[in-house]
Amino acid sequence: MSPAVSRPCWRLSPVLVVALALTSAACARQDARLEQHKDKFESLGETTAAICEAWLGGDVSGTYTRTALEQTFMLVEQERSALAASPDTLLDPRGAALSQASERLSRLIASLAHQVQGANAAAVRQLLTDIPIRGSAGQP
Amino acid sequence: MTVLVDLILGVVTSIGGFVEVGSISTAAQAGSEFGFQLLWAIAAATIMVAMLAEMSGRLAAVSRRSIAAAVRERFGIHFQYIPLGAELLIDVLLLAAEVGGAAIAVKLLTGIGFQWWILPIGLLVWLVLWCCGFSLIEYGLGLLGLVTLSFVVSAWWLKPDVSDLARALVPTLPQHDHVRYAFLAVSILGATVSPYLLNFYSSGTIEEQMTEKELWVNRVTAYMGMCFGGVVSMGVLVTSAMVLGPRHITVDSYEQAALMFVPVFHQWAVVLFALSLGIGCFGAAVEVTLNAGYAFSQALGWPWGANKPRRDATRFVAAFTLVLALGVAIAVVGFDPLRLTMIALALTVVIMPLVVLPFLVLMNDPTYVRRHTNGPIGNGLLAVITVLAALLAIVVIPLEVMGG
Lengths: 140, 404
Description:
The complex is a heterodimer of chains A (140) and B (404). Helices cover 82% and strands 0% of the residues of chain A.
């Protein structure tokens, strides 16, 4: 192989390495960001379950339950905004799935708050089985 | 007999007054995210604050001057502007967070939005300061604050593994999220070693007319009161770690934090949590406001004292009223109290060297503390805090951005 042919390859390789390094760093950042969002949604899903279970068990009042669910709803919405703030995250299939699950969580919390207001324990119990994102404690 | 009663009351009120918005939020977050692993941070911060409180009491009992007054006298008013300005800024932010915390406690019980309670709570703080003398404020709020012992009861009830607790007293690196871990460790330090506490403690020593002969009372009160208070903070962390941790619930709101009491206190859970948070925050709001009045008046040489008739200390009253109004105004704007707390705690660490460094000089000046100057352990601790705080001051803002 003549030097004239090998030189361009030799010159290209550092560029390739830098590009690969940058891509892998960006991927790692993206993975970490998605993991953080996932953890946060799992925590909020688990919080929703804990609040409702405490209400069903007669440990907390309806007033506290509604207040806590409203606060959890706000936190879910904040996290959804943070997730949607980065288009790259939503393009990732995992991010898109998380976004859909978090939307379902939002709607479910709103329904739960409504059912708690109507003191409908059976409906709350039913809705609890549908929480889309929960921590490992809540997984079957 | 009177001394003994004062001693017991002093220790008890130190326990009752230890826990407030900063310690509850940082310990609850630390427990839910890292289990027992940050117990060492509470232990280290408690030892630091106990030693600092003892020193500030000693300075006041011997020199009859509070820290702010002594710094002004020793270094001049031009130097004093910097720590005074920094301390007042932190006082205002902390006050907003404490008033916000008390308002959230009322919200937990009533379901009515916390913003509605901020003005009434601010007014109540002002009325307490206007109507009550120092002893009533200190002992009354401290005794009410004993409700925070419910955190110790819950931790004991949950039966944590003692060997796990003992292991957590030794600092270790976390398995995950190093930045968040570092941020929480710094926040625990900021929540425990508050600069306002030192000037408040020294001013209180003067208000109570403690003399050089009673230095042993100061020592016992500072060490026992603060160390038992630290146990209450550890109770928050342990309860959070054992109840919220296994469910992967991280604390982003006080409504979530209240859930930590449910397995132990059942129907009383929310009431006890709200009372602990509310009384702790209200007591701290009164203390921070009073300290702002103290610091302002002492630095500018005005008459001061919660035991003075208010007409004899009008500028002192005006100073604490102004700071209270600013704090309430920030809280009313609607900042998230938990977020505000974490920012205030990070900034507390930033200003720490400005407060501790002059204190180090004063504690070695026989003009002020006569033969009671600091020994090598006290000086070593102050030097460590100064260096540590200076280093943390550099990293705390990036940590706040990345880990908060």
